[in-house]
Amino acid sequence: MIRIAIACAFALAISAPVHASSFAGTSAGAGSASSGASSGSTSGNDKVVLNAREDAAGFVASDGRIRGARLEAALRHLREHSVEARDASDLALAQAILAR
After folding, report:
1. For a Cys staple, 71 with which of 36, 46, 55, 90, CB 3.0–4.6 Å?
2. 0.70 cut: is pTM over it?
């Protein structure tokens, strides 16, 4: 079970740059969104995910007992913008946030 969760987190971490264009702000446009994905840009809504790192760490360390508001917002955001995230557990997504 742990190996599956780690594999999912690793797969999400690897695929995160592919989906980063969906995190770009609405003023970015398609061309700059795709270039932002390759450069690791933190513009727009990607900040929601990056700002959840501390909450994600607490969630992982507490085995899911501590759920912060920033983590909740990031989980909601990831699931709205990524098909893979919709099927992933909260723990797998929190681990993927930490891997960024």
Report:
1. 55
2. no
